[in-house]
Design a protein that fits this description.
This protein has 12 helices and 40 strands. It is of the alpha+beta class and 718 residues long. The strands form 9 sheets. Strands 33-34-36-35-37-38-39-40 form an 8-stranded mixed β-sheet, with helices on both faces. A hairpin with a 4-residue loop joins strand 9 and strand 10. Helix 6 packs across helix 7.
Length: 718
């Protein structure tokens, strides 16, 4: 007995020694970031800006700083033992054929397809005989895959096409015109197109929008006068005619033009911010069409979705926060003549047209519901969707008898369905063959109370059978701004996270569009703190209900969501183990001085508006709220050196502040992707590398020395 007891004691002692054994931390020596004596004065308050020099994206000093920071960051990431395993798993799971919804142009059916790990989707086409051919392959545009296809528009008869490309992720585009049949380029490349689509007028030319090229850096200099141009084929771009936006009276930050399907009208939208627009039309059947005003204020979001002759159908949230469809005659199109066709409901409306019908998608607690109406506003049917999730693509040309829609949710890869507009019947057109079984995972929607008692929905997705013991690695992802709605959709990277036992939680924060204009406005300007409170309350819900705990919680968001993460981690650094702010708006006092940032003022206000707004913004601006002596979570800031939407200086400054003031032992690193922008068009290879780094950093700083689910690793290695 004594020998057995001694053996047991030794085993117990050894076990205790094993559990208390501390792993060796990865030592980080941060590069020295110099400080300058720049000070701004706002309403009598002096605000230092010691890292102002990092705003100069063209300087050799900034370039050297980027290289030093990346060397430090990748030196750390290289030491994470399972980073390569994550990359391999991401590559394996990513490597399946992906096909977009087909669309008809002329005699061809076109569609986007990626055979697995191609950096960019390829545009294919085929005729009725079913013979497939490549139409455009963006993978041939550059050697490293960083030049992407960012728009494709055909003439009404499908005989010509124009497409836009982005180089290195920039928002500045080049336009190329081709003969669609021969696929030959027919004229010189257009340059300096920005925040624009292409809308053809017959076969003669097309409308597009851009700014004058700014002085200084084209990646960060302010651009605030958008202009709509008409390009006539066969003429140099220098002769393109300004249609709208060229005068002081017509000065707006965002201007767009689109031609009606019957080619009768040009509709022009003009905005000073990302919410609210003026609306005009021109009758293209006239030789010298006049500009006719539909709306002369920016109090609503309004656009034309269809016309029958002079009868116009518009979607608007004017006096209808959740949107409605109205009808009016083009001869007298102002709001006092609008008549409701599809009235506002308690759910937010998104409307499209196809086959001579309206299709209205409603968000019911962020879940899709689709109704079909005729042009008299009569309800034809509710479309019974394949499941609970997000539907998209309900729309096509007026003569279409069938079109395609997509369906997905957080644990179901997107599939495509062919829909018959007359019968309402549909069949599955394409289903991905992916090494992921959605039946092993589940999503549940919960509602929690925010700080002020507002009820907020959140969808939580994880592997079935997950034990709610507070030890599950969890990513809480949010956005909360610009009327953007986060609806359920499948992501390969999230699938890899959940394979490893991870929980993925997405709350529908105020500032988004899930419950209409009132929900959006409740997270703007002097109510922006509501967004952060909603996010904090979501984290507290996950912890209280044992999905996770502080030690296993990471918060993540990009762009406005990067601001969300930055504000949350500086207000509640005790709440999470890891923070992952991506391409974030971090310097809220100066965001409006870069590129088109001033257009975000509807959501944020600016530090120059008044003293109250300045003090409010300064109170949450991430760069200005990093405090000495505070232990911040392990932080991996990510950005791109060619991001001209949210310039990388935001992230540079935030990382510099964290590295200077971090009082804890957690690393505060910045990963700067070179030759990359805000995210759109990023090559698949770069995306895989980035997420291997993000997930590796996250799990390692949650205390994992190996991946939680080794069975998956063994399976894909075998």
């Amino acid at each position: 007995m004594k020998n057995i007891s001694l053996l047991a004691a030794l085993v117990l002692f050894a076990a205790c020694q094993e559990t208390t054994k501390q792993r060796e931390p990865i030592t980080v020596t941060y590069p020295t970031t110099k400080k300058v004596d720049t000070v701004d004065n706002y309403f009598g308050t002096e605000v230092p800006d010691p890292y102002r020099w990092l705003e100069d994206d063209r300087s050799e000093e900034t370039e050297a700083w980027v290289k030093q920071q990346n060397a430090t960051t990748f030196g750390y990431l290289d030491k994470i033992p399972f980073r390569k395993d994550l990359k391999n798993r991401l590559e394996k799971l990513w490597n399946y054929e992906k096909v977009g919804s087909p669309f008809k142009e002329g005699d061809y059916t076109y569609y986007y397809k990626n055979n697995g790990l191609q950096n960019q989707y390829v545009v294919y086409r085929k005729k009725d005989d079913g013979k497939e051919e490549v139409f455009l392959d963006p993978n041939t545009f550059s050697e490293d895959g960083t030049t992407s296809l960012m728009g494709l528009s055909f003439t009404k008869d499908g005989s010509k096409a124009a497409y836009l490309i982005s180089e290195g992720g920039s928002d500045w585009r080049k336009g190329i015109v081709i003969n669609a049949e021969s696929m030959e380029i027919v004229e010189d490349t257009l340059v300096d197109i920005k925040f624009s689509g292409i809308s053809w007028k017959g076969n003669d030319g097309f409308f597009y929008s851009s700014y004058d090229k700014p002085e200084g850096s084209e990646l960060s200099a302010k651009t605030d006068q958008h202009k709509l141009y008409y390009h006539k084929l066969g003429t140099p771009q220098s002769e393109d005619k300004i249609i709208f936006g060229g005068t002081d009276e017509e000065k707006h930050r965002y201007v767009g033009g689109y031609v009606s399907e019957d080619q009768k009208y040009l509709f022009i939208s003009a905005s000073v911010s990302t919410s609210g627009n003026k609306l005009f039309l021109m009758d293209l059947s006239q030789d010298n069409p006049e500009l006719v005003t539909i709306l002369d204020d920016t109090d609503s979001d309004t656009y034309v979705i269809e016309n029958e002759g002079s009868k116009l159908y518009l979607v608007t949230n004017r006096e209808a926060p959740n949107k409605k469809v109205v009808v009016v005659d083009a001869s007298n199109p102002t709001p006092d003549n609008w008549k409701d066709l599809i009235p506002e409901t308690e759910n937010v409306l998104t409307a499209g047209t196809g086959g001579g019908y309206f299709f209205t998608e409603y968000m019911v607690d962020a879940i899709s519901k689709v109704l079909q109406y005729d042009y008299d506003g009569k309800l034809i049917r509710e479309v019974e969707l394949p499941g609970v999730g997000s539907a998209g693509g309900f729309g096509g040309k007026k003569e279409d008898k069938e079109f395609y829609f997509s369906f997905t949710n957080y644990n179901t890869p997107g599939s495509t369905y062919k829909y018959n507009v007359e019968t309402g019947e549909y069949e599955q057109y394409w289903k991905p063959q992916i090494d992921f079984d959605p039946d092993n995972y589940e999503s549940k929607q919960v509602f929690y109370n925010s700080k002020d008692g507002t009820k907020v929905p959140m969808i939580i997705t994880y592997k079935k059978g997950t034990e709610l013991n507070g030890k599950n690695p969890t990513i809480l992802y949010g956005y909360g701004g610009f009327n953007v709605s986060l609806t359920p959709s499948f992501s390969i990277v999230n699938a890899v996270w959940m394979e490893q036992g991870g929980v993925y939680a997405v709350p529908n924060l105020r500032g988004g569009g899930e419950y209409g204009k009132k929900w959006h406005d409740a997270g703007t300007k002097l109510q922006k703190q509501n967004v952060f409170d909603d996010f904090i309350a979501a984290a507290e819900y996950l912890i209280e209900n044992k999905y996770t705990s502080k030690e296993y919680l990471a918060i993540r968001g990009g762009s406005n969501g990067g601001l969300l993460v930055g504000a949350t981690m500086t207000q509640r650094p005790d709440l999470m183990q890891v923070a992952l702010p991506a391409v974030g708006v971090m310097d809220m006092l100066r965001y409006h001085t870069f590129t088109a940032g001033a257009g975000w003022a509807y959501d944020y206000g600016t530090s120059e508006d008044n003293e109250e707004m300045f003090n409010y913004i300064k109170g949450y601006s991430p760069v200005h709220n990093v405090k000495e002596g505070t232990a911040y979570p392990a932080t991996l800031v990510t950005t791109g050196d060619h991001d001209d939407r949210v310039v990388p200086a935001h992230s540079f400054k935030f990382a510099a502040e964290l590295q200077e003031k971090q009082a804890g032992d957690q690393p505060t690193l910045i990963r700067i992707e070179t030759n990359a922008g805000h995210g759109a068009g990023t090559p698949v290879s770069k995306t895989i590398e980035q997420y291997a780094d993000i997930f590796g950093f996250t799990l390692f700083n949650m205390g994992f020395d190996e991946l939680p689910n080794q069975a998956v690793l063994k399976e894909f290695k075998d």
